[in-house]
Amino acid sequence: MSKAAVPLRILCIHGYRQNSNTFREKTGALRKLLKKQVELVYISAPHQVPAIKHETNQELEKGGGDEDQRGWWFSDVQARSFNANQECESSLGLEDSLEAVKIAVKELGPFDGILGFSQGAALVAMLCALQEHKLEPDFNFRFAILVAGFRSVCSQHQRFYKGPAITIPSLHVFGQDDRVIPEQMSRDLLPTFDGAQILVHPGGHFVPAASAHRQTYQDFLKKFQ
Prior knowledge:
26% of the residues lie in helices and 16% in strands.
């Protein structure tokens, strides 16, 4: 088999209130769209999200009523909840999530790239920062795809956005009608990455995978095959 025929292996990081299974289901169209180019590998966040009847609009990320809803960190330490707009001094659970990704890389890798959605995309930006500044030797991602990403407003996380821009090639995907992570929040993350590429779609809070998006994904990915 030629080198070009070998699928790129991508580690997939789900959104808040999702898990590996629900995110796999919600990215079925993407897997079909890119089946000849990529192999998507999914992991779950280490933290279970407490069931709360009246949650913020972040609950729109949850996956189809699945009871096992997971999160990568909580912005409200007491309530163990997350809101991308909630400013906080410190968060709960991020270090455990960084460790979970390290374990996944060691046990399931190697990976060519990493893909994250919403809170997962915010985490991917942090992982890329750790790799860029050589603070995590286990990370060796060649590219990153961030869907509905954003900069964390938690004071404890600002360290990830300091220093030179991240040089890992990145594709930033966001929807013009996203009510959970508005387009501007995703655009605010772009300066963190050097030479960031973007894919803007007219829809809301999901991973777009229509035929109209295929060329952008393929053009980005073929540079690494």
